[in-house]
């Protein structure tokens, strides 16, 4: 089933493999480079590519050498990427990633903001190396709308840059999940407290993006119960069940397998449109396999996303099609080094 076609919103995908978003940290002055365009174009046989996290505004930048999409210059640079992918027959969404409390003034020139003045209790990357995550400035109620609007503005800019759509990053401990979290979100206004309050920011951000570019061009990535970057979530099945009920009927939800199969299956049944599953769970050392993907398709997923497997296997679709072995990526070249981006070859017969 992985190699069969699928209709996703306004797109026809030639297969059910999705290249998952992965931070690669090689932007220059907030802009993707010619190598970025080559990197994604090499992987254009994927049914869908979702880019690395792209900050929707300046305060949302989570780490050094990460790209944005909030200036005209950034839009122009991304157009070179989307043109390259489309020229190779591919389809590509931009992942809109607001770091929230995961950030540093030395990275973005702005002090990080979050739902509450609660530090992540972990380290963040800065130009000088790892540093303790700072205590963010809690957003005032009136300011929350500005961060919601940033997702709508970035979605419009993404379409202007030639992207086929956007995915909002609601996983891995960044701003959207910070609002969902009972540890990061200690607000007492309408954006905190109850489940209804904690899901409100995510719903408003998705509605804003969908209103800007159309719901068929919008997805959201979630990691239910994922304990990363200081995140704790309570009543996960209820929290995410209510979130999925409150979201508009966008193109897809993209779930990371960070909770047990029973909960994931319940969420699959609750969601009316495309359901993307990433079987890899929290960040770890092993690439997901074709067998894992086929198992989840049999269990009701529509598309399967692969992250680490795509780093070293630009021709992952053909490797799965022909039963060829996969190459493991060098973890030392994941971020901010010259090697490890475009120098993994396709399989040599």
Automatic annotation (TrEMBL):
It holds the Pfam family Oxidored_FMN. It comes from the Bacteria. Residues 7-325 form the NADH:flavin oxidoreductase/NADH oxidase N-terminal domain. One of its GO terms (molecular function) is oxidoreductase activity. This is N-ethylmaleimide reductase.
